[in-house]
Amino acid sequence: MTSRDRRRGRPAAAATLFLPLLLVLSGCSNGDEPEVPVVPTSGEPTDGDGTDAAGEPSASPGSTTGVPELCSDLASAGEIAQILQVPMQGETVRVYNDEFLPDSGRTGRLTCSYGVPEVPEGTTPPPTPPPVPLEIAVSGYTEADIAAGRIDSTVDGAQAAGTVVTAQTVAGRDGFLLTDVEDVSFVMADDIRTYVITLLHGVVPAAAEPVVLVNLAAHLLGASATGTPTPTGSATAPTGSATAPTPSP
What we know:
Elements: E1 2-8, H1 12-17, H2 19-25, H3 77-84, E2 91-97, E3 106-116, E4 134-141, H4 144-160, E5 164-170, E6 173-179, E7 183-190, E8 193-200, H5 209-220, E9 233-235
Parallel strand pairs: 1-2
Antiparallel strand pairs: 2-3, 3-4, 4-8, 5-6, 5-9, 6-7, 7-8
């Protein structure tokens, strides 16, 4: 698996000019904006406003954003394959952003897309990028209460949109599985960080999806794999309700 890096950032004037786009793609918003905007997962890795990172950024627990800067600090391709128990073909695409509106409370965001199909050199990329098999996003906030509030608003928005929501504890942190027709996500807060893991249906057998997501979450927290998860409660959308589009952090 190869790796591509993109770093997202722009001058202040440009941030004002493209504010509507930033509100969707970068989460530059006030505290009421959900942690998982309802937009296609494939949009982030192919966002045209990103530029190749100039040199290799330093890994951060030491950075001022409160989030890592490298996908390898979250999970390597080998670790992903070991947890999923399936080979992960394609590229690992990294999008890092540390420029947010001051009142958003967010300090930084790292999004890593694993298994992104490679476009052969000299060929034209498809107009609609294929879905991303696995995406992990971590965001940092100025306060733990803000991080927790982002998860709460995400869960509320998912339930309102008809997504199946199941409470699930991982390593003592409260989390939630969000399931729709295209993928399943796991969201949780850990102090001043939030984590969103989105797995496309079909990457692993359906019965294995919650196990994989919980074990990925445990890995991100530095905890031991939990094996078969035990839901701590659930809220299911009514039969026949609309299904939300694939969420993307």
